[in-house]
Amino acid sequence: MFYNVVIGMTRSQKQAVFVLVDAVVIPLCLLAALVLAANATANLSTLQAVLPLVVTLTCAGAVFGWWVGLTRSRLNDYELRGVIRTATYAAALGLLGASIDQLTLGLLPVGVFVIFSLMLLVASAAWRILLRQVTVQIYRSRRDVTRVLIYGAGQTGQQLVAALRTDDAVQPVAFIDDNPTLQSLMIANLRVYSPSAIKSLVEEKDIDRVVLAMPSISAPKIARIAHRLRHIGCEVHALPSFAALVGEAEMRQKVTPVSLHDLLGRNRLEKELPGVSHAYSGRRILVTGAGGSIGSELCRQLLDCKPDCLVLVDHSEHALYSIDKELRELCDGLTVVPVLGSVLDEPLMCETMAKHRVEVVLHAAAYKHLPMVEQSQNVLSGLRNNVLGTKVMADAARTSGVERFILVSTDKAVRPTNVMGASKRLAELSVQDLAARSPGTRFSMVRFGNVLGSSGSVIPLFQEQILSGGPVTLTDPNVTRYFMTISEAAQLVLLAGSFARGGDVFVLDMGDPVPIKKLARQMIEGAGYEVRDRDNPEGDIEIRITGLRPGEKLHEELLISADMLTTPHPKILRAQESFLSEFEVATALKDLRQAIEARDEAAARSVIARWVEPAAVASLEAGQAVEEAL
Predict the structure, then answer these.
(1) Does residue 484 sit in helix, strand or coil?
(2) pTM of the model as a whole
(3) Where is 573: in which H helix or E strand?
(4) % helix, strand, coil for the chain, step of 5
(5) In the chain, at which end, N or C, are there fewer CB atoms within 10 A of the end residue's CB?
(6) Where are the beta strands (DSSP E) in 119-264?
């Protein structure tokens, strides 16, 4: 009821309430001053005599309170400046009362008006602060409140707390600081804790987010702190200084992030997935595609497992430099070996595995952007990298005696209707073939859907389109996709390696698929805009339907067969799927190599249409016809 009353009041009604309360407080304070003043008598005759003065001061208080902005100020903004206005207001009314009394009645000593001013200051400030707290609690009781820990009790942290206290949707709970002299103190009315208390605070106080409010420290130190906090079960954000926000650098508009729960269609699984340090601790591990979205996250999570050596393979010099630099800053004692080269370079891959005595290979290198690989000039490159590159890595792992080989695959490999998906399925088939006849190396694969925030994914695309004013492009109003976080994807790959027995295909229970149209609408509205459509022609940003691209599905799948086996964790399943014989795989790869060497795209499409699941044949042939027509 109180919530409905508060939100239903207009601004004029609220100001009228403020004036009314002040009109009650003024006579009460004057009466209290009469009672408390030692040289004044608060009898009936005195009260009757000062009644005109009370009325005058009450009317003057309403006028003066409006003039100094006291009754026009929002409760949410009542802080130090509001108290200063209140002091000016109280002193002015005390001076006015003393002047009127001395010029007319002369009944009351000056001390009464001094006490009156002080009591009016206390009472006026107190009821506003109290009412503000009550109002904030009423608002917060009817909406989801984000509870945050502020890491850094310095100036930026205190400024952040002051700002957040005016927002009923965010509640600062406590400070975290590395400085022992600040720990256990109360700053800005919040307790300061040591970093060791973060995990217990997150659980006990239901923390949703940790904000790093330390802009003056170096970026590597912030990265190390963020790395330590990555498994606490809530989001971690870094805050620039408020001075930097108005500096010379261009200020870019930010699109408000959509709730991860809404994107995933389920709760995040990081806390539900078990640790895997035992499977990688002290091991010598090679990661291909180490500079990519998945590869770099695999490397970061492997740091917690304390491997003996981490070999990074990537053909992009900049991506390899970036991840190598980051890992060295995060973990000084770890042996990191950057290898600049392609997974297609068989001599280099064999030499690297033998030289560094690699025990585990995580193969994340792939061309993954469906429209790019589907274009005619890129089909052969995509097949060469994804299929033959995987074959090179798997053969090198087998020859070098690697214990475990994990292939990172995709849901687009299930009954593929495009070249990229077919290339990943053929890569799976080649790995499954080696798994059936390689007793020394355990080969396994892991499939997952779209990864939030990865390069080329739908989220960055929509953000860019919203920032440019739209339209947001959607291929089909009914298209759906499975989503997972980069952290979940990397942890699933590592778990697959620890569960692998040979030839396994692991999938994650990813909940319900997310309608992409719903996602587009959420991101537009989250950025503060309205969707422009037939129902709202005056909206800001349009969702434009462009039509399905060649080879694109309406709905992705994670399984080819419905047969499933359990694993040690209920959220991770093992698929039972048919695979090609050794002779069939050898034939398919031989024909594919010949087509690639001859630069014969039609022959290459025929190979994958022949050997990949029959459901994909018609779509792949149709894709070839589209390309020829274009």
Answers:
(1) strand
(2) 0.63
(3) strand 572-575
(4) 50, 15, 35
(5) N
(6) 146-151, 170-176, 186-187, 190-193, 209-212, 235-238
For residue 172, the SS3 value is strand
Burial of 218 (0-12, 13-18, 19+ CB in 10 A): exposed
Tokens of 602: 């039609």
* Active-site residue, 412 included: yes
Q: Is the dihedral of CA 177, 179, 184, 186 positive or negative?
A: negative
Nearest to 104 by CA among 42, 35, 57, 37: 57
In the block, residue with structure tokens 């475990």: 404
Which of 144, 164, 140, 172 has its CA nearest to residue 7?
A: 140
Q: Are 529 and 541 in contact (CB under 8 A)?
A: yes
For residue 445, give the H/E element and its range: strand 442-447
445: nearest Cα among 361, 330, 545: 361
End-to-end CA distance of the chain: 64
CA 217 to mean position of chain CA atoms: 22
Alpha helices in 412-546 (DSSP H): 419-436, 458-467, 486-499, 516-526
Among 33-37, 247-251, 328-332, name the one with the lowest average pLDDT: 247-251
User: What angle separates helix 486-499 from helix 293-303, to the nearest 10 degrees?
Assistant: 70
Q: pLDDT tens digits, residue range 8-67?
A: 667 777 777 777 877 787 788 877 777 776 556 666 666 666 777 777 777 877 777 677
How far is it, in rounded angstroms, from Cα 413 to Cα 255?
A: 32
Q: In whole angstroms, what is the distance from residue 65 CA to residue 22 CA?
A: 9
Which member of 368, 412, 424, 517 is catalytic? 412
Length of the chain as a residue count:
630
Neighbours of 339 (CB within 10 A): 20
Q: Which residue has the higher pLDDT, 351 or 135?
A: 351
Lookup result for tokens 């499977």: 279
- 105 φ, ψ (degrees, to nearest 5): -80, -45
What region, left, alpha or beta, does residue 580 occupy, with left being phi > 0 and alpha being psi -120 to 50 degrees?
Answer: beta
Confidence of residue 1 (pLDDT cuts 50, 70, 90): low
